[in-house]
Target: SDR family NAD(P)-dependent oxidoreductase
Amino acid sequence: MQSLQDKIIIVTGASSGIGERIAHHVANQGGFPVLLARRASKLKEIVQQLPGASAWYACDIADLEAIRETFARIRSEYGPPDALINNAGFGIFESVSDTPMNAFQSMFDVNVLGLIQCVKEVLPDMITKQYGHIINIASQAGKISTPKSSGYAATKHAVIGFTNSLRMEVKDHHIQVTGVNLGPVRTNFFDTADPEGAYQSSVERYMLDPDVVAKRIVQSLFTSKREVNMPGWMNVGAKLYQLMPGLMEVMLRNQFSKK
Model:
């Protein structure tokens, strides 16, 4: 990993969970984290706890115009960012028939379109500098689809496809692009995804520590790491699923249906 000293690193979804811990790890290594999320009060609280310099902006990643305005302010006040970590996202775990259309729309607005808009805001400067790193946090759900996660899985399939294409597009500009595919992480993600707690209780023993995840992501900054996959055993399962989807769906039917 290249030194993070004075590197401007934008982190979306930084008011809690993985994003908050990423901000701490960046700051602890001398970087300049710029925190984005909707909750201004929470961002203020986090920034006060960080060592060194940092900044925060209240920004709804579902609002494309708000993204444009916020990134313009960041460039004006601090200069072009060196890295972008697209962490903002959410899911709703319901069957297709029970999920209202506006819920699908909301997931795509944040998880896909908001992510793409953030990338488009940083790309011109990174191409000019011939330097930068974009990290998009997708999910193992983008590799292994399961019942009651159709909308969320669709958004993460889209993020993986977008990330892989983007990586090839910007390679000659010396811009690194990393995809992060995670299993369940112990964060407030499940407050929205699984409000009754049934799925969360069934996967409790597999849940990742958000601080461990954040440390791993920050370690990949300014490296040529193509993907970060956690936990490792789940990524092995994803590869087997790609080779033998029908068989894996039969073998793991009970596990897949725990939502």
